[in-house]
Design brief:
single chain; 336 residues; mainly beta; Porin; 16-stranded antiparallel barrel; 3 helices; 17 strands; 8% helix; globular
């Protein structure tokens, strides 16, 4: 493990200084690393309670390329821990591998790419190092092997669209083995505010088709960000996903911010105990909050003491599962 961190930071230091440009073609590179020093005070999983340690949630190396004013591409690999508290194991995979082209007000991208499920929300939220968005946590994939088309309805329009097809072919970070059709419309009345409506359809064999409807509204200024998110995914005979979330950041000083995500599961988590870092009891509705104080130490380092607390409703047997409570010190090195 020590060798990994030494090698990673050595590579990251070299990558962060890499920039090549020649007659309209350029390559730049960078990376990031974030993880938690954690203490699990309570857990619905008996073996996880009272555990403590360090978990590397993600180490990423990225290379970006541009050719002229239109062509672009990205290759990204990552290392991360899998498992559960007290028993994490470091592994790795490819994360992004795509090329794209700008066509006036429109952009087409193909390969292993971020889905459009919450790419706009992530851009506004920008705190994934602390906690993933609620639908991401509970099983809606953030990557797919496919093609996307994005753009504005017209040059002066406040309305933009995003379309994406995710292939049944899979590779590395893409774990979705079925065709998926995604679409979203974003209305941005001002530079600070937006409203998004997202839907998708994923035909599956038998009575297991999945369809998602999602609504997001947010406002971001120099001082604060706040947003509300609602996601409903029907899974036919499989357990559904229904979750609502509140997101917020508040800049207290130039180097100190308050950060939080609260989400409530209106149905028990369909992913449940298989969620790495923040497992949920799969039998009961739950309220979860991750909240912390973010300290910016220079241009490349964030230190965020925070808590992750989950409280459960009674399940169908009339039993309320034990709370989950983690106290964490999250460290984020960012050279992207």
């Amino acid at each position: 493990m020590t060798r990994f961190y030494y090698l990673f930071f050595l590579t990251l230091s070299a990558f962060s200084q890499l920039s090549i440009a020649d007659e309209g073609f350029s390559i730049s590179a960078g990376g990031m690393l974030f993880g938690d020093l954690y203490y699990v005070s309570k857990s619905h999983l008996p073996n996880a309670a009272e555990s403590t340690g360090w978990v590397t949630r993600r180490g990423v190396l990225t290379a970006n390329a541009k050719a002229g004013q239109s062509w672009f591409g990205r290759a990204r690999v990552e290392a991360f821990d899998t498992g559960s508290a007290g028993d994490y194991d470091l592994t790795g995979q490819g994360r992004d591998l795509y090329i794209g082209r700008k066509l006036g007000q429109h952009t087409v991208t193909g390969g292993l790419i971020p889905t459009i499920s919450y790419d706009v929300i992530e851009h506004y939220w920008n705190k994934r190092y602390l906690v993933r968005l609620a639908p991401d946590l509970h099983g809606i994939p953030s990557r797919d092997l496919g093609i996307s088309l994005k753009g504005k309805i017209s040059n002066d329009s406040h309305v933009s669209y995003r379309l994406m097809y995710g292939s049944s072919a899979t590779w590395e970070a893409d774990h979705n083995a079925y065709d998926k059709f995604m679409g979203a419309v974003v209305f941005q009345p001002t530079e600070e505010s937006l409203f998004e409506l997202y839907v998708d359809e994923e035909p599956r064999p038998g009575n297991h088709d999945r369809s998602t409807a999602q609504v997001f509204a947010g406002r971001k200024t120099e001082q604060y960000f706040m947003g509300v998110l609602y996601t409903h995914q029907d899974r036919q005979s499989d357990p559904p996903l229904e979750v609502t979330a509140l997101l917020g950041t508040l800049k207290v000083t130039s180097s100190v911010s308050l950060v939080s995500q609260f989400h409530y599961l209106l149905e028990p988590s369909p992913k449940g105990n298989s969620i790495t870092y923040l497992p949920f009891d799969p039998t009961a509705r739950a309220s979860n909050i991750v909240a912390g104080i973010e300290f910016s130490l220079g241009h490349h380092l964030l230190i965020t003491p925070n808590v992750a607390w989950t409280v459960y409703d009674q399940n169908s047997q009339g039993v309320r599962p034990e709370d989950d409570l983690q106290v964490r010190l999250t460290v984020f090195f960012n050279f992207e």
